Amino acid sequence: MMRQPLLEVQHLRTRFETYRGTLRAVDGVSLTVSRGETVALVGESGCGKSVAALSIMRLIRPPGRIAGGRVILDGRDLLEASEVEMRGIRGGRIAMVFQDPLSTLNPTFTVESQVTETLRVHRVAAGAQARDRAIELLDAMGIPAPRERLRSYPHELSGGMRQRVMIAIAVSCQPEVLIADEPTTALDVTLQAQIMDLLATIKEERGLATVLITHDLGIVAQFAEKAAVMYAGQIVEECPVSRLMEEPLHPYTSGLLRCVPRLGRPDVPITPIEGTVPDLVSLPAGCRFAPRCPKVMARCRQAMPPPYEVDAQRLVRCFLYAGADTASAAEEED
Amino acid sequence: MWGRFVGHRLLQLIPVLIGVSFIVFLTMHLTPGDPIEHMLGQAGRITQAQIDELRSHYGLDRPLLVQYGLFLGNAAVGDFGPSYSHQGRSVSQVVAERFPATLELTLFAFALGIMLAIPAGVVASLRPHGRFDRTATVTALLGISMPGFWLGIMLMIVFGLRLQWLPISGRIDLALVPQYVTGLHTVDSLLAGDGAAFWSALKHLALPGLAMAAPMAAMVMRMVRSSMIGVLGQDYVQFARAKGLPERDVIGKHALRNALIPTVNIVALQTGLLLSGNMIIETVFQYPGLGKLAVDAIAAADYPLVQAVVLIYAVSYVLLNLAADVLHAALDPRVRLA
Predict the structure, then answer these.
(1) B238, A98: Cβ pair inside 8 Å?
(2) pTM reported for the whole predicted model
(3) Is A107 within 8 Å of B258 when comparing Cβ atoms?
(4) In a domain, A256, yes or no
(5) Any domain includes B322
(6) How many domains does chain A have?
(7) Do A321 and A249 contact (CB within 8 A), yes or no?
(8) Tens digit of pLDDT for each residue in B19-61?
(9) Domain of residue A242, CATH code
(10) What ipTM did this prediction achieve?
(11) B 243-282 near A (Cβ less than 8 A)
């Protein structure tokens, strides 16, 4: 199944200048997403997932900046695009859904205003036509009485409704790529399933390339085809989701999986990963996971492991797999 | 919905106004200085009988609460009785003559302050601690810390006397006074199509207006700046950008509207201070408005006139807060009455 990648992120590096020094939030992340494919970006809070998403949209603001790499959408490097071109791409070709719909929708504008405004700036529809389109969108998102809901303000809607409105806004201009940043984290479990089903339906119907950012491995297992596990600004393991779940290779990935409680299996203990996430301003010299790694070796503390290609579908950034490398590993610059 | 909201708030004003009027009434009567003596001060020899006659003529021999009751009843229909110091004229006449001047100056100062403060606050918030922000912060600090009368005098010295750019007293060139329609010289001169009169009125407003607006503009600018900085970090601003909106809409629509919500209350409070600064500024600039009228009336122990003017200030202040509440509700759907 070789699909032409639609979005290709190569060696993306995003930094923040802080009083304490340079914070490497995203440090050489590469990712490819094809049409109709969902790639999950998994990791703990603060690992750089969201910054990576914002970098793809070029929404990083000072003191942050994109220090290097490429973000190629359908052959065009977005990091070289003008700000005007980017405005057309944001919301037009790449849309984004955020975590907390209450804080993401503007509390002072009606649903109608917030939905139609996107249609207007992207010249999809205006006036009464935009209004009709907004009703259709809300209806398609499973919002009851969409015509009445247009007059509502975000605080008058339930959490699930708000998230549906946000998704309606995101998909209103027929984007090709959808970046969903923790789309269900702020919702309770029953709503999580509904919203994820909605996102899956939209993806199927429209052939969207989806980047799903989450820390929830259950959601990854259910909705993504490919997963990239992020740790301290880097992708440490990337492979099809089924294989990741069955046989995690990187010690961090296995650690993450052991943190998930198993329903109906009280005999399987939950084992937290010891230690804490490293400070992104002063990173350890070698592998970033070395201080917490149960399988750490001497060389891990001296040099950063490159991503090893274990097989055609699988990359692991760990010296344990140095011997298993099929091709010569793509050595990282920098 | 709006009718009920405003009506509700207007009803709440009634007890406030009764309280204010009673305090105004009492303060003036507890102040030393007998108005009859003031009135007769220059008249030479007077008999006690004449004094008593005047006292009963003005109702000053009645019990205090009765005097207050009469005052309130009359005030409700706009009758504040005769003025002690403006012989032969009623308080209402004197006030009506001066009111437009103060209204014009206050509106001008308010508009000037807002037009300086909001854009400056927004621009400063876009680059906190940048060059513009630092300049604006220092300027605002000066605006807050300079007393109004001192700033007024400095403006007079620099722009009026040294540079001779602007007049330092009065409302307009007396030769250019336009036909009375609204009493606001700028509006009347525009209605009459008289450019020269309009320009003259505007120039007369410039210095007292600036002196009045400075502290208010400074506070409002600081408030807009800090609430904009807070709002710009919000998720909905990020989402607005992710929707592909131009920065103009992100800042001017999504961010500004939210930043104005806390600002409205500060503006109302500061405009209240603007009204009180009015007395000082009008006196410094010899501007023929209510503020100067009040100061002169206090010196002359003209009770009814002082009461009327103070009551007008109090009512304006209360109405201003009502306006702020309405505006607050208009900006923020979350505070509207269900």
Answers:
(1) yes
(2) 0.82
(3) yes
(4) yes
(5) no
(6) 1
(7) yes
(8) 888 888 887 677 766 767 766 665 566 777 877 887 787 777 7
(9) 3.40.50.300
(10) 0.87
(11) 243-246, 249, 254, 257-258, 261
